[in-house]
Amino acid sequence: MNLVRRSWLVILLTLFVGGTGVAQSRVQLAQGRRAIQDKVSFVIDVAHDKSGNPRYADAPEDMRVMVRFSDRPASGRVYLDGKAVGRFDETQMFNSNSIDVSYGRHTITLAVTAPATLYDLNVDLRGGIAHEILGDEEPAVTLAPDLSKRVAELERKVHDLETEIASLKKKRNH
User: Does 13 fall in a domain?
Assistant: First the structure.
């Protein structure tokens, strides 16, 4: 009988503690190995969680950014909407302090002082839901210039423009 009471007590406490926990959302913005020459930016949307908790009516509780580098330590800063929120020096891992954030779109930028290889970048948000905004373009990444690719791209554009000019001249003459 005593065992049954303890079991029910454990179940009730588990439900109570689990039910009063803070809603937390995690979004993984980068994973794998990504070479960064100087900076990379990601756009996220911070939305209300579905709990309807009045505590989060105006803003989520906080946000944290976690970054890991592969191969070797890196130095740099993390920015939220252009404002520095953390600095890291010769480390392979960075965890930001708690960051105040509002609902809506935000840009997270990771800037390094020397070329580095990003392993992953996660954002934890308490009291809201975060989603990465993916457009048709890759996130803004600045890599070492590859002139042969750039020349090939410009040659293709010139060829396309020459073809369009020729077709317009044909239409004008007819």
Answer: no
How long, in residues, is the chain? 174
Number of structural domains found in the chain: 1
Per-residue confidence band for 71, with pLDDT thresholds at 50, 70 and 90: confident
Q: Is the pTM of this model over 0.70?
A: no
d(CA 49, CA 126): 9
Phi, psi of 172 (to 5 degrees): -70, -35
pLDDT digits over 87-137, tens only?
999 999 999 998 889 888 999 999 999 999 999 999 998 888 888 888 645
Q: Report if residue 72 sits inside a domain.
A: yes
Residues in Cβ contact with 34 at an 8 Å cutoff, skipping those fewer than 6 apart: 40, 117, 118, 141
Task: Tell me the residue range of the domain where 73 lies.
Answer: 23-169
Pairing of the two strands 104-112 and 83-91:
unpaired
Mean per-residue pLDDT, 56-62: 80
| 93 sits in which H/E element | strand 93-95
Residues with Cβ within 8 Å of 47's Cβ and at least 6 positions away in sequence, in order, are 103, 128, 129, 130, 131
- CATH code assigned at 45: 2.60.120.380
- 17 assigned to some structural domain: no
